[in-house]
Protein backbone atom coordinates (compact mmCIF):
# COMPACT_ATOMS: atom_id res chain seq x y z
CA UNK A 1 0.00 0.00 0.00
CA UNK A 2 1.35 3.41 -0.90
CA UNK A 3 2.23 5.92 1.78
CA UNK A 4 1.71 9.52 0.67
CA UNK A 5 4.73 11.74 1.09
CA UNK A 6 2.57 14.75 1.86
CA UNK A 7 2.19 13.37 5.40
CA UNK A 8 5.41 15.33 6.08
CA UNK A 9 4.80 18.95 7.09
CA UNK A 10 8.20 19.94 5.72
CA UNK A 11 11.39 18.53 4.20
CA UNK A 12 13.09 18.93 7.57
CA UNK A 13 10.56 16.55 9.10
CA UNK A 14 11.68 13.94 6.57
CA UNK A 15 15.33 14.46 7.54
CA UNK A 16 14.53 14.28 11.25
CA UNK A 17 12.33 11.18 10.91
CA UNK A 18 13.43 7.90 12.46
CA UNK A 19 14.65 6.45 9.18
CA UNK A 20 18.17 7.44 8.16
CA UNK A 21 18.16 9.84 5.20
CA UNK A 22 20.41 9.24 2.23
CA UNK A 23 23.33 11.20 0.83
CA UNK A 24 23.38 14.26 -1.38
CA UNK A 25 26.24 14.10 -3.88
CA UNK A 26 27.34 17.04 -6.02
CA UNK A 27 30.15 17.42 -8.53
CA UNK A 28 32.61 18.40 -5.81
CA UNK A 29 30.89 17.84 -2.47
CA UNK A 30 29.01 15.12 -0.62
CA UNK A 31 26.94 15.16 2.54
CA UNK A 32 24.95 12.64 4.53
CA UNK A 33 21.64 14.46 4.92
CA UNK A 34 21.47 13.33 8.53
CA UNK A 35 24.23 15.87 9.23
CA UNK A 36 21.73 18.66 8.63
CA UNK A 37 20.03 17.78 11.90
CA UNK A 38 22.89 19.52 13.70
CA UNK A 39 24.61 21.61 11.00
CA UNK A 40 23.63 24.21 8.44
CA UNK A 41 24.80 25.48 5.06
CA UNK A 42 23.40 28.95 5.83
CA UNK A 43 26.11 30.98 7.52
CA UNK A 44 23.90 33.28 9.59
CA UNK A 45 21.17 32.33 12.05
CA UNK A 46 18.63 30.53 9.88
CA UNK A 47 15.86 31.58 12.29
CA UNK A 48 16.22 35.12 10.93
CA UNK A 49 14.58 33.83 7.75
CA UNK A 50 11.46 32.57 9.52
CA UNK A 51 8.34 33.88 7.83
CA UNK A 52 10.30 35.55 5.01
CA UNK A 53 9.78 35.28 1.26
CA UNK A 54 13.15 33.93 0.18
CA UNK A 55 14.72 33.86 -3.28
CA UNK A 56 17.27 31.04 -3.70
CA UNK A 57 19.90 31.96 -6.29
CA UNK A 58 23.00 29.76 -6.15
CA UNK A 59 25.15 28.59 -9.04
CA UNK A 60 25.64 25.07 -7.67
CA UNK A 61 22.50 22.87 -7.51
CA UNK A 62 24.09 21.18 -4.47
CA UNK A 63 23.75 24.44 -2.52
CA UNK A 64 20.22 25.00 -3.83
CA UNK A 65 19.23 21.61 -2.42
CA UNK A 66 20.77 22.37 0.98
CA UNK A 67 18.96 25.71 1.15
CA UNK A 68 15.62 24.10 0.31
CA UNK A 69 16.09 21.52 3.04
CA UNK A 70 16.84 24.28 5.55
CA UNK A 71 14.05 26.65 4.61
CA UNK A 72 10.98 24.57 3.78
CA UNK A 73 8.67 24.89 6.77
CA UNK A 74 10.59 27.94 8.00
CA UNK A 75 10.15 30.49 5.20
CA UNK A 76 6.76 31.79 4.13
CA UNK A 77 7.67 31.42 0.48
CA UNK A 78 10.58 29.99 -1.55
CA UNK A 79 11.35 31.12 -5.10
CA UNK A 80 13.77 29.09 -7.23
CA UNK A 81 15.67 31.10 -9.84
CA UNK A 82 17.03 28.83 -12.62
CA UNK A 83 20.35 29.74 -14.25
CA UNK A 84 18.83 30.07 -17.73
CA UNK A 85 16.40 32.83 -16.69
CA UNK A 86 18.00 36.17 -17.53
CA UNK A 87 18.90 38.34 -14.55
CA UNK A 88 17.03 41.16 -16.30
CA UNK A 89 13.85 39.47 -15.03
CA UNK A 90 15.05 39.40 -11.42
CA UNK A 91 13.36 42.68 -10.31
CA UNK A 92 10.05 41.49 -11.77
CA UNK A 93 10.28 38.12 -10.02
CA UNK A 94 11.28 39.70 -6.71
CA UNK A 95 8.43 42.19 -6.88
CA UNK A 96 5.65 39.70 -7.52
CA UNK A 97 7.06 37.00 -5.24
CA UNK A 98 7.33 39.70 -2.55
CA UNK A 99 10.93 38.67 -1.91
CA UNK A 100 12.45 40.17 1.23
CA UNK A 101 15.47 37.85 1.60
CA UNK A 102 17.96 36.36 -0.87
CA UNK A 103 20.03 33.23 -0.22
CA UNK A 104 22.98 33.12 -2.60
CA UNK A 105 26.48 31.71 -2.95
CA UNK A 106 27.73 34.92 -4.62
CA UNK A 107 28.46 33.12 -7.88
CA UNK A 108 25.00 33.02 -9.43
CA UNK A 109 24.30 36.73 -9.06
CA UNK A 110 27.94 37.75 -8.83
CA UNK A 111 29.53 39.34 -5.77
CA UNK A 112 29.23 42.82 -7.25
CA UNK A 113 25.55 42.22 -8.06
CA UNK A 114 24.69 41.55 -4.43
CA UNK A 115 25.02 45.21 -3.58
CA UNK A 116 23.21 46.43 -6.68
CA UNK A 117 19.77 47.97 -6.79
CA UNK A 118 17.67 45.01 -8.07
CA UNK A 119 17.89 43.37 -4.64
CA UNK A 120 16.73 46.55 -2.95
CA UNK A 121 16.33 46.22 0.80
CA UNK A 122 16.12 42.42 0.76
CA UNK A 123 18.17 40.69 3.45
CA UNK A 124 21.17 38.95 1.88
CA UNK A 125 22.32 35.61 3.27
CA UNK A 126 25.19 33.37 2.21
CA UNK A 127 24.90 29.66 1.58
CA UNK A 128 28.14 27.66 1.63
CA UNK A 129 29.49 24.13 1.27
CA UNK A 130 31.24 24.56 4.63
CA UNK A 131 28.58 23.54 7.13
CA UNK A 132 28.38 25.43 10.41
CA UNK A 133 26.76 24.41 13.73
CA UNK A 134 23.02 24.86 13.45
CA UNK A 135 21.47 27.33 15.86
CA UNK A 136 18.60 25.81 17.79
CA UNK A 137 15.49 26.36 15.71
CA UNK A 138 11.88 26.44 16.76
CA UNK A 139 10.02 23.24 15.89
CA UNK A 140 7.09 25.29 14.57
CA UNK A 141 6.48 24.61 10.87
CA UNK A 142 5.04 27.18 8.49
CA UNK A 143 3.07 26.21 5.35
CA UNK A 144 5.74 27.25 2.84
CA UNK A 145 4.73 28.25 -0.68
CA UNK A 146 7.03 27.26 -3.54
CA UNK A 147 7.37 29.41 -6.68
CA UNK A 148 8.74 27.78 -9.82
CA UNK A 149 9.58 29.73 -12.95
CA UNK A 150 8.70 28.55 -16.42
CA UNK A 151 8.91 30.15 -19.86
CA UNK A 152 6.33 32.80 -20.66
CA UNK A 153 4.91 34.07 -23.95
CA UNK A 154 5.85 37.70 -23.19
CA UNK A 155 9.52 36.98 -22.50
CA UNK A 156 8.96 37.24 -18.78
CA UNK A 157 8.97 33.94 -16.89
CA UNK A 158 5.67 32.60 -15.64
CA UNK A 159 5.59 32.29 -11.86
CA UNK A 160 3.79 29.12 -10.76
CA UNK A 161 2.82 28.73 -7.10
CA UNK A 162 2.89 25.26 -5.50
CA UNK A 163 2.88 23.82 -2.00
CA UNK A 164 4.91 20.89 -0.69
CA UNK A 165 1.71 18.82 -0.72
CA UNK A 166 1.02 19.52 -4.40
CA UNK A 167 4.65 18.88 -5.35
CA UNK A 168 4.81 15.54 -3.55
CA UNK A 169 1.34 14.16 -4.24
CA UNK A 170 2.63 11.57 -6.74
CA UNK A 171 5.51 10.32 -4.60
CA UNK A 172 5.23 6.96 -2.86
CA UNK A 173 6.92 6.98 0.56
CA UNK A 174 6.63 3.24 1.18
CA UNK A 175 9.80 1.92 2.87
CA UNK A 176 11.08 -0.01 -0.16
CA UNK A 177 13.94 2.22 -1.24
CA UNK A 178 16.90 0.49 0.39
CA UNK A 179 19.99 1.01 -1.71
CA UNK A 180 18.30 3.37 -4.16
CA UNK A 181 20.54 6.07 -5.63
CA UNK A 182 18.75 8.59 -7.82
CA UNK A 183 20.26 10.58 -10.64
CA UNK A 184 18.75 13.17 -12.93
CA UNK A 185 19.80 15.17 -15.97
CA UNK A 186 17.34 17.89 -14.94
CA UNK A 187 18.19 21.02 -13.00
CA UNK A 188 16.47 20.78 -9.62
CA UNK A 189 15.23 24.37 -9.96
CA UNK A 190 12.85 23.13 -12.64
CA UNK A 191 9.80 20.96 -11.97
CA UNK A 192 11.26 17.73 -13.38
CA UNK A 193 14.46 17.93 -11.36
CA UNK A 194 12.69 19.12 -8.23
CA UNK A 195 10.48 16.05 -8.38
CA UNK A 196 13.55 13.82 -8.20
CA UNK A 197 15.09 15.80 -5.32
CA UNK A 198 11.85 15.55 -3.35
CA UNK A 199 11.50 11.86 -4.17
CA UNK A 200 15.02 11.12 -2.94
CA UNK A 201 14.68 13.13 0.28
CA UNK A 202 11.20 11.92 1.22
CA UNK A 203 11.96 8.26 0.51
CA UNK A 204 15.32 8.47 2.30
CA UNK A 205 17.27 7.63 -0.86
CA UNK A 206 20.48 9.19 -2.12
CA UNK A 207 20.75 11.63 -5.03
CA UNK A 208 23.58 12.40 -7.44
CA UNK A 209 23.35 15.97 -8.74
CA UNK A 210 25.00 17.40 -11.83
CA UNK A 211 27.40 20.26 -11.28
CA UNK A 212 27.03 23.72 -12.86
CA UNK A 213 27.51 23.34 -16.63
CA UNK A 214 28.80 19.77 -16.14
CA UNK A 215 29.16 17.93 -19.47
CA UNK A 216 26.85 14.96 -19.96
CA UNK A 217 29.79 12.56 -20.33
CA UNK A 218 31.26 13.65 -16.96
CA UNK A 219 27.92 13.23 -15.21
CA UNK A 220 27.40 9.80 -16.75
CA UNK A 221 30.87 8.75 -15.63
CA UNK A 222 30.11 9.83 -12.06
CA UNK A 223 26.72 8.10 -12.21
CA UNK A 224 28.42 4.83 -13.16
CA UNK A 225 31.01 5.19 -10.41
CA UNK A 226 28.35 6.04 -7.82
CA UNK A 227 26.19 3.06 -8.79
CA UNK A 228 23.11 5.13 -9.68
CA UNK A 229 20.10 2.80 -9.71
CA UNK A 230 17.31 5.18 -10.80
CA UNK A 231 17.73 8.05 -13.25
CA UNK A 232 15.46 10.52 -15.04
CA UNK A 233 15.61 12.93 -17.96
CA UNK A 234 13.89 14.10 -21.10
CA UNK A 235 14.01 11.97 -24.27
CA UNK A 236 16.49 14.52 -25.65
CA UNK A 237 18.66 14.05 -22.55
CA UNK A 238 18.60 10.31 -23.15
CA UNK A 239 19.41 10.56 -26.86
CA UNK A 240 22.42 12.69 -26.03
CA UNK A 241 23.44 10.31 -23.23
CA UNK A 242 23.29 7.24 -25.47
CA UNK A 243 25.74 8.89 -27.85
CA UNK A 244 28.38 9.03 -25.10
CA UNK A 245 30.73 6.10 -24.36
CA UNK A 246 30.28 7.02 -20.69
CA UNK A 247 26.72 5.64 -20.83
CA UNK A 248 28.02 2.05 -21.06
CA UNK A 249 29.39 1.58 -17.50
CA UNK A 250 26.13 2.75 -15.93
CA UNK A 251 23.74 -0.07 -15.01
CA UNK A 252 20.50 1.50 -13.74
CA UNK A 253 17.52 -0.54 -12.58
CA UNK A 254 14.95 2.12 -13.49
CA UNK A 255 14.81 4.75 -16.24
CA UNK A 256 12.25 7.56 -16.25
CA UNK A 257 11.46 9.88 -19.15
CA UNK A 258 9.37 13.05 -19.02
CA UNK A 259 9.23 16.60 -20.32
CA UNK A 260 8.91 15.69 -24.01
CA UNK A 261 7.06 13.13 -26.10
CA UNK A 262 8.66 9.71 -25.60
CA UNK A 263 8.47 8.24 -29.08
CA UNK A 264 8.91 4.54 -29.78
CA UNK A 265 12.42 5.00 -31.15
CA UNK A 266 13.90 6.26 -27.86
CA UNK A 267 11.98 3.68 -25.82
CA UNK A 268 13.37 0.91 -28.06
CA UNK A 269 16.89 2.36 -27.87
CA UNK A 270 16.82 2.42 -24.07
CA UNK A 271 15.47 -1.12 -23.92
CA UNK A 272 18.31 -2.31 -26.15
CA UNK A 273 20.97 -0.32 -24.30
CA UNK A 274 19.82 -1.19 -20.75
CA UNK A 275 18.11 -4.60 -21.06
CA UNK A 276 17.81 -5.09 -17.31
CA UNK A 277 16.13 -1.77 -16.51
CA UNK A 278 12.47 -0.97 -16.01
CA UNK A 279 11.44 1.95 -18.23
CA UNK A 280 8.61 4.43 -17.72
CA UNK A 281 7.61 7.71 -19.27
CA UNK A 282 5.64 10.16 -17.18
CA UNK A 283 3.37 13.00 -18.16
CA UNK A 284 3.76 16.11 -16.03
CA UNK A 285 3.85 19.87 -16.40
CA UNK A 286 4.90 22.57 -13.96
CA UNK A 287 1.31 23.78 -13.73
CA UNK A 288 -0.61 20.49 -13.82
CA UNK A 289 1.83 18.38 -11.79
CA UNK A 290 2.41 14.69 -12.34
CA UNK A 291 -0.61 13.12 -14.03
CA UNK A 292 0.44 9.52 -14.74
CA UNK A 293 3.27 7.33 -15.93
CA UNK A 294 3.31 4.61 -18.56
CA UNK A 295 5.28 1.42 -17.94
CA UNK A 296 4.44 -0.81 -20.91
CA UNK A 297 7.32 0.62 -23.00
CA UNK A 298 4.97 1.81 -25.72
CA UNK A 299 4.61 5.40 -26.88
CA UNK A 300 1.44 7.23 -25.91
CA UNK A 301 -0.88 5.94 -23.21
CA UNK A 302 -3.86 3.56 -23.03
CA UNK A 303 -7.29 5.18 -23.32
CA UNK A 304 -8.17 3.51 -20.01
CA UNK A 305 -5.74 5.94 -18.32
CA UNK A 306 -8.39 8.65 -18.57
CA UNK A 307 -10.52 6.81 -16.03
CA UNK A 308 -7.87 4.80 -14.21
CA UNK A 309 -5.28 7.33 -13.04
CA UNK A 310 -5.28 7.24 -9.23
CA UNK A 311 -6.00 10.61 -7.62
CA UNK A 312 -6.17 12.42 -10.97
CA UNK A 313 -9.09 13.41 -13.18
CA UNK A 314 -8.28 13.43 -16.90
CA UNK A 315 -10.26 14.39 -19.96
CA UNK A 316 -9.67 15.39 -23.57
CA UNK A 317 -11.42 18.54 -24.77
CA UNK A 318 -10.87 20.01 -28.24
CA UNK A 319 -8.11 17.40 -28.69
CA UNK A 320 -6.03 18.70 -25.74
CA UNK A 321 -5.39 16.92 -22.46
CA UNK A 322 -6.94 18.49 -19.34
CA UNK A 323 -5.90 17.57 -15.77
CA UNK A 324 -7.44 18.09 -12.33
CA UNK A 325 -5.84 16.84 -9.14
CA UNK A 326 -4.40 17.88 -5.78
CA UNK A 327 -1.01 17.92 -7.52
CA UNK A 328 -1.79 20.94 -9.69
CA UNK A 329 -0.37 24.34 -8.83
CA UNK A 330 -2.46 26.86 -6.92
CA UNK A 331 -2.21 29.81 -9.31
CA UNK A 332 0.07 32.08 -11.31
CA UNK A 333 1.70 35.14 -9.80
CA UNK A 334 2.88 38.22 -11.66
CA UNK A 335 1.48 41.18 -13.52
CA UNK A 336 -1.94 40.33 -14.98
CA UNK A 337 -1.51 36.60 -14.30
CA UNK A 338 -3.53 34.32 -16.60
CA UNK A 339 -6.09 31.93 -15.19
CA UNK A 340 -4.47 28.60 -14.41
CA UNK A 341 -7.60 26.43 -14.00
CA UNK A 342 -11.04 26.45 -15.55
CA UNK A 343 -14.14 26.81 -13.33
CA UNK A 344 -14.17 23.05 -12.75
CA UNK A 345 -10.54 23.02 -11.62
CA UNK A 346 -9.01 21.51 -14.77
CA UNK A 347 -5.68 22.70 -16.21
CA UNK A 348 -5.52 22.82 -20.00
CA UNK A 349 -2.06 21.42 -20.75
CA UNK A 350 -2.08 22.57 -24.38
CA UNK A 351 -0.81 19.10 -25.39
CA UNK A 352 -2.68 17.71 -28.38
CA UNK A 353 -3.53 13.99 -28.33
CA UNK A 354 -5.08 11.66 -30.89
CA UNK A 355 -6.86 8.38 -30.19
CA UNK A 356 -5.74 5.46 -32.37
CA UNK A 357 -6.56 1.81 -31.71
CA UNK A 358 -7.42 2.31 -28.06
CA UNK A 359 -4.34 4.40 -27.29
CA UNK A 360 -3.80 8.15 -27.10
CA UNK A 361 -0.71 9.47 -28.86
CA UNK A 362 0.78 12.91 -28.23
CA UNK A 363 0.89 15.00 -31.40
CA UNK A 364 2.62 18.08 -30.04
CA UNK A 365 1.87 21.46 -28.55
CA UNK A 366 -1.23 23.34 -29.67
CA UNK A 367 0.82 26.54 -29.98
CA UNK A 368 3.58 24.85 -31.99
CA UNK A 369 1.58 23.91 -35.08
CA UNK A 370 3.04 24.61 -38.53
CA UNK A 371 0.35 25.82 -40.95
CA UNK A 372 1.10 24.53 -44.46
CA UNK A 373 -1.46 26.10 -46.78
CA UNK A 374 -4.18 25.77 -44.14
CA UNK A 375 -3.20 22.21 -43.15
CA UNK A 376 -1.83 21.64 -39.64
CA UNK A 377 1.46 19.90 -38.91
CA UNK A 378 2.73 19.09 -35.41
CA UNK A 379 6.57 19.05 -35.51
CA UNK A 380 6.75 16.32 -32.88
CA UNK A 381 4.63 13.97 -34.99
CA UNK A 382 7.07 14.31 -37.90
CA UNK A 383 10.08 13.92 -35.58
CA UNK A 384 8.68 10.66 -34.21
CA UNK A 385 8.64 9.25 -37.75
CA UNK A 386 12.09 10.59 -38.63
CA UNK A 387 13.53 9.14 -35.44
CA UNK A 388 12.33 5.67 -36.45
CA UNK A 389 14.62 5.66 -39.46
CA UNK A 390 17.55 3.33 -38.69
CA UNK A 391 20.17 5.96 -39.59
CA UNK A 392 18.62 8.82 -37.58
CA UNK A 393 19.65 9.51 -33.99
CA UNK A 394 17.61 12.68 -33.42
CA UNK A 395 15.67 15.20 -35.48
CA UNK A 396 14.29 18.69 -35.16
CA UNK A 397 11.42 19.77 -37.39
CA UNK A 398 10.98 23.46 -38.12
CA UNK A 399 8.84 25.91 -40.02
CA UNK A 400 10.31 27.60 -43.12
CA UNK A 401 8.52 30.58 -44.62
CA UNK A 402 7.03 30.09 -48.06
CA UNK A 403 5.44 32.75 -50.32
CA UNK A 404 3.05 30.14 -51.71
CA UNK A 405 1.86 28.03 -48.74
CA UNK A 406 2.86 30.38 -45.93
CA UNK A 407 5.13 27.73 -44.44
CA UNK A 408 6.97 24.53 -45.31
CA UNK A 409 8.12 21.66 -43.12
CA UNK A 410 11.91 21.23 -42.97
CA UNK A 411 14.11 19.15 -40.68
CA UNK A 412 17.57 19.11 -39.14
CA UNK A 413 18.75 15.54 -38.66
CA UNK A 414 21.52 14.14 -36.49
CA UNK A 415 22.64 10.77 -37.85
CA UNK A 416 23.82 7.75 -35.91
CA UNK A 417 27.20 7.59 -37.63
CA UNK A 418 30.30 9.55 -36.66
CA UNK A 419 30.03 11.77 -39.73
CA UNK A 420 27.36 12.80 -42.21
CA UNK A 421 27.59 11.80 -45.89
CA UNK A 422 28.43 14.45 -48.46
CA UNK A 423 27.60 15.20 -52.06
CA UNK A 424 25.64 12.57 -53.96
CA UNK A 425 25.53 10.22 -50.97
CA UNK A 426 23.93 12.94 -48.84
CA UNK A 427 21.30 13.58 -51.50
CA UNK A 428 20.49 9.87 -51.74
CA UNK A 429 20.10 9.55 -47.98
CA UNK A 430 17.92 12.66 -47.79
CA UNK A 431 15.64 11.23 -50.46
CA UNK A 432 15.55 7.86 -48.74
CA UNK A 433 14.51 9.47 -45.45
CA UNK A 434 11.81 11.49 -47.21
CA UNK A 435 10.50 8.33 -48.85
CA UNK A 436 10.51 6.63 -45.44
CA UNK A 437 8.37 9.49 -44.08
CA UNK A 438 5.87 9.14 -46.94
CA UNK A 439 5.03 5.68 -45.66
CA UNK A 440 3.59 7.16 -42.43
CA UNK A 441 2.80 10.82 -43.07
CA UNK A 442 0.44 12.80 -45.25
CA UNK A 443 2.24 14.60 -48.12
CA UNK A 444 2.07 18.07 -46.49
CA UNK A 445 3.81 16.69 -43.38
CA UNK A 446 6.83 15.21 -45.16
CA UNK A 447 9.88 17.50 -44.81
CA UNK A 448 10.56 19.31 -48.05
CA UNK A 449 14.23 19.67 -47.08
CA UNK A 450 16.48 17.69 -44.75
CA UNK A 451 19.76 19.06 -43.45
CA UNK A 452 22.32 16.81 -41.76
CA UNK A 453 23.82 18.55 -38.72
CA UNK A 454 26.62 17.61 -36.27
CA UNK A 455 24.52 18.48 -33.20
CA UNK A 456 21.12 19.80 -32.13
CA UNK A 457 20.81 22.50 -29.50
CA UNK A 458 19.02 21.75 -26.23
CA UNK A 459 17.51 24.23 -23.81
CA UNK A 460 18.49 24.29 -20.14
CA UNK A 461 15.32 22.27 -19.44
CA UNK A 462 16.61 19.39 -21.56
CA UNK A 463 14.25 19.96 -24.46
CA UNK A 464 15.07 20.57 -28.09
CA UNK A 465 15.53 24.29 -28.77
CA UNK A 466 12.99 25.17 -31.45
CA UNK A 467 13.66 28.12 -33.78
CA UNK A 468 12.19 28.64 -37.22
CA UNK A 469 14.39 29.11 -40.28
Concise summary:
With 469 residues, the chain is α/β, with parallel strands linked by helices. It has 11 helices and 26 strands. The strands form 5 sheets. Strands 2-1-11-10-12-13-14-15 form an 8-stranded mixed β-sheet, with helices on both faces.
What is the topological layout?
Elements: H1 11-15, E1 23-25, E2 30-32, E3 39-42, E4 53-57, H2 61-71, E5 77-80, H3 90-97, E6 101-104, E7 123-133, E8 145-150, E9 158-163, H4 164-168, E10 181-184, H5 191-202, E11 206-208, H6 216-226, E12 230-233, H7 235-242, E13 254-257, H8 264-273, E14 278-285, E15 289-294, E16 301-302, H9 305-308, E17 312-317, E18 320-325, E19 331-333, E20 347-356, E21 359-365, E22 370-372, E23 375-377, H10 379-386, E24 392-402, E25 406-415, H11 423-438, E26 449-452
Parallel strand pairs: 1-11, 4-5, 4-6, 5-8, 6-7, 10-11, 10-12, 12-13, 13-14, 25-26
Antiparallel strand pairs: 1-2, 3-7, 8-9, 9-19, 14-15, 16-21, 17-18, 18-20, 20-21, 22-23, 24-25
Radius of gyration equals: 23 Å
* Count of β-strands: 26
CATH architectural arrangement of the largest domain: 3-Layer(aba) Sandwich
Q: What is the 3D form?
A: globular
Strand coverage percent: 25-35%
- What is the straight-line distance between the termini? 52 Å
The largest sheet, given as strand count, sense and whether it forms a barrel, is: 8 strands, mixed
According to CATH, the homologous superfamily of the largest domain is ANL, N-terminal domain
Write down the CATH class of the largest domain: Alpha Beta
Under CATH, the topology of the largest domain can be stated as Rossmann fold
Strands of the widest sheet, in order across it, are 2-1-11-10-12-13-14-15
Number of helices: 11
Structural class: alpha/beta
The tally of domains stands at 2
Summarize model confidence as the mean pLDDT.
90
Poorly predicted residue ranges: 111-115
- What is the share of helical residues? 10-25%
